[in-house]
Amino acid sequence: MHVAILGNGVTGVSAALELRRRRPEWRITLISGESRHHWSRPALMYIFMGHMRYQDTKPFPDSFWGQQKIELLRGWVTRIDGGARRLELADGAALGWDRLLLATGSRPNRFGWPGQDLDGVQGLYGLPDLLQLYETTKRTRRAVIVGGGLIGIELAEMLVSRNIPVTFLVRERSYWDNVLPAEESAMVNRVVRRHGLGLELATELGAVEDDGRGRCAAAVTADGRRFPCELVGLTAGVSPNLAVVEGSGIETGRGVLVDSRLATSLPGVWAAGDCAEIVTPEGERNLIQQVWYTGKMQGETAAANIAGEERDYDPGIWFNSAKFFDLEYQTYGRVNFDVPGERNLYWEHPSHRHAARVVLSSEGSVIGLQTMGLRWRHQVAERWIAEARPADEALASLPELAFDPELHRRYEGEMRGVLEEQLS
User: Fold this and answer.
1) Residue 395, Cβ density class (10 Å: 0-12 exposed, 13-18 middle, ≥19 buried)
2) What is the pLDDT of residues 167-188, one digit of tens each?
């Protein structure tokens, strides 16, 4: 049995390792045109800023793959022939397979802006983007970042480390307010401006201006304002990477359509990670999850099903964390999901650098927790949500959430008073 895995990110690698554990006798091939060896994609920022070397971002030594008898194939797949069960590569080679996992990840959104293909206009997703950024920043005096979110903040921090002034063009009325509640979004606005970056809210990109040599000269907004720059970073979200799936006969929507076991419409083919769109019961929005830990979970679930076990994908309690420059962010469960009947309890320090939110169901139990500028214990937060901890018990137990209290100032006392007053 030969399993081919298209993509060597966290999803593809997690699937390969789980398959090897379950099926030691099977042949497994990991295919990637970007790199021969798996590396940690979240480390792009640290490579650019000089905190890490590329070789330090590889979680396994190069010899590991041979020891695991996992074949590594460097090449770009151009066509999936489902009938012949064959992958065709850009160099003319072909690879047969018995079972196939698509783990092709995401690609930065481009919305057809005039000039979006000029030299100096790019996203930040993989090694080619990093190499392009190295070259472009050699001649960059000013930069514009289109879109907000977490990747936008990372790119801004990378550019600021090279003393390149940055201006954000953000379509929303406040930074990342499609994800963050209004108060937390306002905190991010302040952080961005405190670090000396321009922040143009409720502003859309209209076009990228050509300098006459095929290079970016300015970002022009939809209302006609001009921001001179040599680099435009496109960080207006990502979409499932479906390029190689087109024409294969595999059904797609926003992503590769899969069932609860991550199987596609083509027998013998599964999809997982950023590229997968999980079809949900009628009336619910299909699920696309594009964070590191869900990619790992989906890879392991797909491997179990490829190996013959019937296992539904269960993402568990939602979690995410990040940093907006020096402002840490953690979220657990259902925050800003607009759950019917939900109630929000919110505390913010007068400095506007620390905040906590507790989201309650209509029955008064905890369904979501979120912090800014604070650290809470993951296992405790997850347990409270899983057990539907009653609000009064949760507020009385706030110190249980505190992470590393001997090294951080404690806010639970003042926080509890404010939240209990809101609860009453």
Assistant:
1) buried
2) 999 999 999 999 999 999 999 9
Q: Where are the beta strands (DSSP E) in 339-408?
A: 343-348, 355-360, 366-372
Three-state DSSP at 34 gives coil
- In the numeric block, the tokens 């069960």 are attached to 85
Pairing of strands 216-221, 205-210: antiparallel
d(CA 137, CA 143): 9
C-alpha distances in angstroms, 14 versus 241, 272, 304? 19, 11, 11
d(CA 106, CA 126): 10
Determine what percent of the chain is predicted with pLDDT higher than 70. 99
Rounded to whole angstroms, how far apart are CA atoms 275 and 246?
13
How far apart CA 36 and CA 226 sit, in angstroms, is 41
* CA separation for the pair 373, 219 (Å, rounded): 33
Coil, strand or helix at 319: strand
CA dist 219 → 11, 172, 195 (Å) = 35, 17, 21
- Selection from 415, 369, 367, 405 nearest residue 389 by Cα: 367
Separation CA 151–CA 148 (nearest Å): 7
Task: Give 37-57 pLDDT, tens digit per residue.
Answer: 999 988 999 999 999 999 999
Euclidean distance between CA atoms 100 and 118, whole angstroms: 36
